Amino acid sequence: MKKQIIDFKVIGNKRVNATHFILTLQSELPLPTMLPGQFVEVKVEGSPTTFLRRPISIHDVDYKSNKLLLLIQEKGDGTRKLADLKPGDNLNIVLPLGNSFTQASEGESVLLVGGGCGVAPLLFLARELHAKGVKVTTLMGARSQDMIMEPENYSQFGELLITTEDGSVGKKGFVIHHPIWWDTKPSFDRIYTCGPDPMMKAISKLADKYQINCEVSLEQTMACGVGACLCCIVDTQRGHLCTCTDGPVFDYKELKNWID
Ligand SMILES: Cc1cc2nc3c(=O)[nH]c(=O)nc-3n(C[C@H](O)[C@H](O)[C@H](O)COP(=O)(O)OP(=O)(O)OC[C@H]3O[C@@H](n4cnc5c(N)ncnc54)[C@H](O)[C@@H]3O)c2cc1C
Ligand code: FES
To answer: What is the band of 193 on the pLDDT scale with cuts at 50, 70, 90?
Structure first.
């Protein structure tokens, strides 16, 4: 899939909670085809510490109006600068990058599991799967109610289940404590997950126990994003691979030392 460098105009910057915001970007040119699970590299102007582009998942796409949405957590200098963007500002982006989640087939039932900002790539995925006639269930986990981001967007495409650590909404506990796992065998053909490594490892263990296909989206620190700097190497059954070009999505069984 050919990469493009596009100058987007910021048309919206919506605060979702104390640490997360959604940028709505519009291009004058038609957007290239993108696949759920792929990411973009965003150029952050204006400081020596933000020289390298920052990798951000494709949160949602509207091809008709050439709009791209990014859900971003403020972490350091780069994401703090992105949080300050105003409508009318420009943002230079390389896209689409990386591989994608394997496309499920019509009639299959899939579970999407997102923890914290890991829900970012799951909205675009839910939209595309739903359009293909796949039954989608999304399980979101967060610390508390205010960290559950835009649940109504995900529930458009199927059942939405929620867990919070403090029990302020949904079931209390982590995503692995949700009652769906109490069944003798949860009735999903596939699981796709994105979030902190400990969460994705725990979900992979459950997938392993119930013999369900499971793909994880890794958040390695990245510099170039195009396979040149080798800073995002991951050890797999196929050898050492770059998370930015061979991933970020991997079958959990491919990853060495992922689960015991
Ligand atoms: C494929 C991919 C998709 C991603 N999608 C999203 C997304 O949709 N939304 C979002 O908010 N973030 C996403 N991230 C993480 C995001 O790239 C980092 O949070 C961001 O680069 C931090 O930049 P910064 O300048 O704000 O912080 P820095 O000053 O560069 O770092 C601040 C802190 O964040 C840590 N950090 C830096 N880069 C990463 C990274 N790649 N992963 C995890 N921790 C990091 C640093 O170790 C440091 O502790 C994604 C990362 C990858 C690899
Ligand atoms: S980020 Fe440079 S090789 Fe992956």
So the answer is: very high
Does 14 contact ligand 1 (Cβ within 6 A)? no
Strand partners, 234: 241
Contacts of 75 (CB under 8 A, 6+ apart): none
Ligand nearest to the CA of 22: 1
Q: What is the pLDDT of residues 202-220, one digit of tens each?
A: 999 999 999 999 999 999 8
- Round to whole Å and give the CA distance between 88 and 12: 9
Residue nearest to atom 40 of ligand 1 (CA): 221
The domains located in the chain, with CATH, are: 4-97 (2.40.30.10), 109-217 (3.40.50.80), 218-260 (2.10.240.10)
The SS3 of residue 64 is coil
